[in-house]
Amino acid sequence: MASTPVLVARQLSKTVSAPEGELTLLEHIDLTVQGGDTLAITGPSGSGKSTLLGLLAGLDVPSGGDVRLAGEPFSGLDEDARAALRGRYCSFVFQAFHLVADLTALENVMLPLEIAGADRARDKARHWLARVGLGKRERHFPLQLSGGEQQRVALARAFAMEPALLFADEPTGSLDRANGDQVAEMLFDLNRDHGTALVLVTHDPALARHCGTHHELVEGRLSA
Ligand code: ADP
Ligand code: MG
After folding, report:
1. If you measure from the C-alpha of residue 117 to the centroid of ligand 2, how many angstroms do you get, rounded to a whole number?
2. How many angstroms is it from 130 CA to the middle of ligand 2?
3. I want to staple 54 with a disulfide (CB 3.0 to 4.6 A). Which of 18, 60, 210, 213 is the partner?
């Protein structure tokens, strides 16, 4: 029996009103992501990649079409219910890391675990920081870490939640080549070890090449 895909988007569209009138950002977007799949979405700046991620994660509401996470539709849910559904299955990594500046590396990784009421949050956070090679940096604050190290803390924070699906928006976009490669390698290691599906928006051809599927966003539509 085929298992339920972790993410399905059907005929997604997004239209916004602009001073010049209605503007279609996205249309006819169909996507299916199975457990453990890796998908890259590339496209020029302004092509709607972040808008698409927002729709796929239920952060934003489409003008048409439908998104399902693990078979459960976002449509018809209010913001709180969408957040609850997203929280059950998804974690995020952002270009600008989005760590909490006045929490240590360890506390940053612990934060979502504590919010979710996980037991042994501190032990789990320690394990995940060590997993990304930052076991000796537990007490460092984000500003005391390099960009590459901050993104590794963000990876530990994301994977500690054991998500079925990780959304990453330009995860290597603020890093130099060496640090970007290290973060990319870690992403794919964690994908393999934990069966976490990856949906990556990226300008980085190396990152896109490593994904099982690669779509380009052109004029609001995904290439086959
Ligand atoms: P990307 O991530 O590919 O660089 P974005 O998804 O951030 O692109 O944005 C796509 C385009 O849509 C941009 O031109 C942006 O200015 C525009 N846009 C995004 N959201 C809105 C909105 N709510 N209203 C008007 N324009 C928007
Ligand atoms: Mg963007």
Report:
1. 32
2. 30
3. 60
The tally of domains found in the chain comes to 1
Claim: this prediction has a pTM higher than 0.85: yes
Closest atom of ligand 1 relative to the 44 alpha carbon:
3
Q: Is the C-beta atom of 19 inside 6 A of ligand 1?
A: no
Decide if 216 is inside a domain. Answer: yes
Alpha-carbon gap, residue 79 to 60, rounded angstroms: 9
Residue 2 belongs to a domain: no
Contact call for residues 106 and 152 (beta carbons, < 8 A)? no
Q: Is the CB of 49 under 6 A from ligand 1?
A: yes
Containing 67, the helix (H) or strand (E) segment is strand 64-69
Does 47 contact ligand 1 (Cβ within 6 A)?
A: yes
- The residue whose CA is least distant from atom 26 of ligand 1 is 16
* Domain limits for position 36: 7-222
1 part of a folded domain:
no
Q: What is the pLDDT along the chain (224 residues), one digit of tens a residue?
A: 578 999 999 999 999 999 999 999 999 999 999 999 999 999 998 999 999 999 999 999 999 999 999 999 999 999 999 999 999 999 999 999 999 999 999 999 999 999 999 999 999 999 999 999 999 999 999 999 999 999 999 999 999 999 999 999 999 999 999 999 999 999 999 999 999 999 999 988 889 999 999 999 999 999 87
**From the centroid of its chain, how far is CA 184?**
13
Residue 68 is part of a domain; what is its CATH number? 3.40.50.300
Q: Is residue 133 part of a domain?
A: yes
β-sheet with 64-69: strand ranges across:
21-33, 7-18, 64-69, 72-73
Tokens of 64: 């048409």
In this structure, which amino acid lies at residue 135? G
> What separation in Å is there between the alpha carbon of 50 and the centre of ligand 2?
4
